[in-house]
Amino acid sequence: MIQNCSNLSLKDRIAEMLRAEIAAGRMADGEELTQERVSDALAVSRIPVREAFLQLEADGLLRRLPNRHVQVVGVTAKRLRQNFRVLASLECELARLAAEEGDFSLALDRLEALRTADTWTDRVRCDTSFHLALGASLDNPTLAQLHSGQRRGLFAGALDRLPPEGVPLRDLNDALEDGLRTRDGAALCRKIRAYYETVCEAVLKEMKP
Question: What is the average per-residue pLDDT within 181-185?
């Protein structure tokens, strides 16, 4: 059964809002945040804010400080290129291994959800859901968690910089289907790298003054 990609908890919605602010540069690299400041601004309790902070810290977008505050790790062109290259290489290797011994059924299910997503926001969320399912196809929780952390970190923030329809997410991901169905690891790797290169260049274009 295809799940709705847009169902998010309060903690996840707060994390998404903060990620968007960081990605857009409205929270500068090195800026300090407190749970009180964010909870007051959003009119929510500190518990989901603390949970959102922990999530973004795990994603590499916040850095814990000795005074219990957190510090923003801003998006730079250098960090973006580095993260995209590492993420593409990791996802390629996971897909190559999964083509030999994994299960792509969930990834194919998520790909269909992406095709039927109506709005750009839902397509971005379903795109993430598809790639997380692709990373989990090997049934190795340790590697899936590593992939998830990279995917939800700077990459997710970078996508938030793009204008609506900023990249053809459906077309880029549809190109992976043949490789998934035929279990062609080499073809999957080429298409995955093309996907990340295209998104990276689109984001870098938006970052230029």
Answer: 96
Residue type, 114: L
Pick the CATH number of 77-207 from 1.10.8.80, 1.10.10.10, 1.20.120.530, 3.40.50.300: 1.20.120.530
CATH number of 10-72: 1.10.10.10
133-150 confidence digits (pLDDT tens)? 999 999 999 999 999 988
Q: Tell me if 202 sits within 8 A of 172, measured CB to CB.
A: no
What is the C-alpha separation between 112 and 177, in angstroms, rounded?
A: 10
Dihedral angle sign, alpha carbons of residues 123, 127, 130, 132: negative
Q: Is the dihedral of CA 139, 141, 142, 143 positive or negative?
A: positive
Q: How many CA atoms lie within 13 A of 81 on its CB side?
A: 6
pLDDT at residue 104 is higher than 90? yes
Rounded mean pLDDT, 167-188: 96
